[in-house]
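Researcher: Let's continue the batch. This sequence belongs to mannan endo-1,4-beta-mannosidase, and it's 442 residues. Same format as the previous ones, please.
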Amino acid sequence: MKRFLSLALALTVALTGLDTSQAAPHNTKNRDFVEVASDGKGFTLNGEPYTIRGANYWQGMNLGADDCSGGDRDRLDKEMELLVKMGINNLRVMASSEGPDDQKQRMRPSLMYAPGEYNEGVFQGLDYLLDAMDRHGLTAVMTLNNYWQWSGGFAQYVAWIDKNQTAYPLPEGDQNWDTFTKYSARFYNDTEIYEEAQGMWKKHIETVITRRNTINGKIYRDDPVIMSWQLANEPQEGPDAWFEETSTFIKELAPKHLVSAGIEAKLDQFDFNRAHTPKNIDYTTCHLWVENWEIYDPSNKSSIVDAQIYADDYVHSRAQWATELNKPIIMEEFGMARDAWIKPDDEVFKYSPDTPTAHKDQYYKGIFDNIVSLAKKRQFSGSNFWAYAGLGRSTDYPNQYGMVWVADPPHEKRGWYSVYNTDTTVKVIEEYNSQLKALEEE
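Model: Same format as before. Here are the structure tokens for mannan endo-1,4-beta-mannosidase:
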């Protein structure tokens, strides 16, 4: 019988192209798909309440690649264990990145280096990441595009159609983000290129959703590890019809999975409702960036008070908006810099892994307390902090592709918002996760 099974496995490998060293199933427990609760007030998994105790781990796809493609699977496996120890059950990851790989401020190597052309090594990194998450009982939010340049994103699609050499319309050193955002938004606001841009992107969506995982043989659209497909990271003021059209397209390809929009929700309730009203957008999202929005100054010790007041109002107002739509809500991005106020004139100190995180810990705890309070009333479903750097450090030497895989995207200062495995913030996150877990069990 053993020899028969070995021959059967060999035949399966030959037919499917699976890696024999990884083909054996890792997770034998029954897994269902994450669903929205029947009353719209949260999520369920296997018929039980499911809160999102999450982290952003956008770099996971590239860490999961093999050595030749710039990955570090040993580190990824260790970080999976650390995340589970923290009580994390959900990771928001990139399921897209666009080349060419000679561009600045870009994830390298990219998943799709040219329209419809893929780096198989990076794709297998995504396979490995999902399989590792399955082994550790985690679920994934799969982000399919990006309004910002650090993964290529919308602007790269525009550049491909325009035949530009670069997706950045800004001169070196120009920080006029208004110029860039208008360029990026052409992806869905320019009627002359809309059909071509969306068609190109939908081919990518279909390629990812219908992919067969080379590690475990599962087709992505049938894999319960995937909780949600997300249209894009922070699509800014996208057209109403785009949210409707794209969410419907994804739902038809992957009817077992949830779909989310990925918006910040930093504007008003009208903008929030436009993105979240379509029937195939299953839940709502919000992001909170007090420093980027000029509410918090990490060099000013007293500004933490303003940050917390703003965050308190933000969490409660967005929870109310979601309640009115009768859809769950996740705070899927928020972060804070290290304590630059200790040495406000020292730029190196601001981003050093050794710099304390007293303000960050206080700020995280304030947000977490609000979410737990609202979750008890089933008005909030969890969060994903930004972002987990794990064993990486801002001081690490770049790999062969010039990348340092921490939690800060390539266009930002390394160490700005990263949460390292040794940070005191980890204890704050652990306590919060234990409180949410306890709510599931009540």
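Researcher: Any comment?
Model: The chain has 13 helices and 15 strands.
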